[in-house]
Recover the amino acids of this structure.
């Protein structure tokens, strides 16, 4: 039997005064069993650093409202 992904829900509030971007995001993140906690956190940090209204997410890392 294959191991299933663990689902994590994260709320991020971004305040970037350099880019004049202020936004809140609710994310649902699927963490594969072979993925480390550190790698999952890097994905979240990368999203926060690049957050914008036009940012689209890939399968397994999507926004919910």
């Amino acid at each position: 039997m294959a191991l299933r992904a663990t689902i994590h829900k994260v709320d991020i509030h971004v305040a970037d005064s350099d880019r004049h971007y202020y936004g809140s995001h609710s994310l649902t993140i699927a963490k594969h069993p072979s993925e480390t906690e550190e790698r999952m956190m890097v994905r979240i940090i990368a999203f926060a650093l690049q957050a914008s209204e036009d940012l689209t997410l890939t399968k397994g890392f999507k926004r919910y409202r």
The chain has one domain: 6-63. Residues 31 and 40 are 7 Å apart (CA to CA). The two ends are 32 Å apart (CA to CA).
